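Methods — Computational structure assignment.
A single polypeptide chain was analysed. Its primary sequence is given first, followed by the predicted tertiary structure written as structure tokens.
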Amino acid sequence: MKRIALIAHDKMKSELVEFVANHLDFFRGVELVGTGHTGALVSQKTDLKGKRYLSGPLGGDQQIGAQIASGKIAAVFFFRDPLTPQPHEPDITALLRLCDVHYIPAATNPATGEALIRGLQNSWPFLPSKSYEKNVVLVEKSE
């Protein structure tokens, strides 16, 4: 079963919960993980269960990042609040960087979430198809 991470900033938690509730058929077919409070809200409002990590500012973003780096996450739905500074912004940047490095699709708002779900439904067996590290070629510096 594919594992999907759910994360949302405080002002976006209700939008993520509503998004998941509107796509229950899709989310019932995957294994869910999430940061602490986000995971709790999704579970309370939709009856979907999943593993909950720490809250984002307490290390949950990094815990999910470790799962991405280990090849255990197939997609990320991280609804971000672009208008509010986050005290753990470096963790957020690192998490999204790991998505890019490991070719993990990430949706950061409901519009990209819709596109991601449609893409996953159409090409699920091919994601994730490759990892950045497989494409790195080390070149020795000549003197």
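Note: The CA atoms of residues 67 and 132 lie 16 Å apart.
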